[in-house]
Amino acid sequence: MTCNKIGIRREDMYEWERRTPLIPQDSHDLVQQHGVEILAQSSDKRVFTTSDYERVGIEVVEDLVSCPVICGIKEVPIPVLEPKKTYVFFSHTIKGQPYNMPMLQKILDLSCTLIDYEKITDEKGRRLIFFGNFAGLAGMIDTLWTLGQRLAAQGIDNPFTKVKRAFDYSDLGTAKRELKKIGEQIASDGLPEQITPLVVGFAGYGNVSRGAQEILDLFPVEEISPSDLPNLEASHPKGNKALFKVVFKEQDMAEPLDSSHPFDLQEYYAHPERFRGVFDRHLPYLDVLMNCIYWEPKYPRLLSKEQAREMYAGAQPRLKVIGDITCDIEGAIECTVKATEPDNLVFVYDPTTDRPIDGVEGNGPVIMSVEILPTELPRESSTYFSSVLKKYVPAIASANYDGNFADLELPPEIKRAVIVHRGELTPDYRYIEHYL
Length: 436
Description:
Blueprint: E1 5-8, H1 24-34, E2 37-41, H2 50-55, E3 59-61, E4 69-71, E5 86-89, H3 101-109, E6 113-116, H4 132-153, H5 172-189, E7 199-203, H6 207-216, E8 221-224, H7 232-235, E9 243-248, H8 250-253, E10 254-256, H9 265-270, E11 275-277, E12 288-291, H10 305-311, E13 321-324, E14 346-350, E15 355-358, E16 366-368, H11 378-389, H12 393-398, H13 412-415, E17 418-421, E18 424-425
Parallel strand pairs: 1-2, 1-4, 2-3, 4-5, 5-6, 7-9, 7-12, 8-9, 12-13, 13-16
Antiparallel strand pairs: 6-17, 10-11, 14-15, 14-16, 17-18
Helix pairs in contact: 4-6
């Protein structure tokens, strides 16, 4: 049975979530050009208002009971799940994340179908729909704000105190203009001698990293290689009118156990047990570390709790701030022991007590670990996401989900993202049973 009807759900899992998967204009175009019926659930915090949707002819309703397919952004609270519905959202279940296993079990129990944006990929496994770039943009802004606050708490007057939190800017364009002015001030007046040369390191080079670098590049920046780090102060004795940027790739984070064996990227992905982590060799030279990598437990960490204890045991190291955009709890940055909120961005990880202390003061790195960074730029990130998603909506809306998974007619990009079909894990995702 097909209905060609989709509901846009309100985001009620997180207080700060203001995004929408389909903006009003794209919703209107889907109705007019493809005959998809779209309802929007009422919301008092969505960045696009009830009036915005109604103005283009989209009906706004209190519930989505009549919609067989429901699209959202973040996880759906367990009490809200309805039997035999098809849900499309970021489920955060493909790594067996413990905190979402009860939700996944409920989806199975209710004979629902689950399509996860994260697994909408091409034939080479590359993601086709994501917010990564906007996570990087917002995360870098928030990290620069964090740096300013940390330095000020240490009694260092610095231009980064003029940086606002990402959600405090009216829009991305305004943020970029204001940040560029701060960059011009640095180019003219220089940075305080106590913090130069100022080095910002990026772990990773994908969409998240590119978004973060886009913000940093609004400042006067000189890019260097990892091999330049040990001699940077000697080679740039007056490097106070620019920030230094270094981007780390996999070969900078790990090396083969057999030192006679050259680094091979595909071997690293396939057999990480043949490698050891070496990122600690870079940490003494960084003031700010941006974590932008996808990480699983089989890979080496960037910073372990034990390494943090050693680093902060004596004189304070250079590493002041970690912008953990990836925000895997106790993941690549093991010191990321909790996620933070846009209005309470940071905590200091105290290595001696293994606990977080809200704010920027204390012994240990200040960690920015907001889990829902793109929602700090809700209008721009929603507009981009919707522009990609709308290409797939007609097929998602018109599919017949009543038959067997093998017979489910969806574009291959979407079918690869069907984690659950009619209450059963699909073949590619049966491994998740071990986590339930």
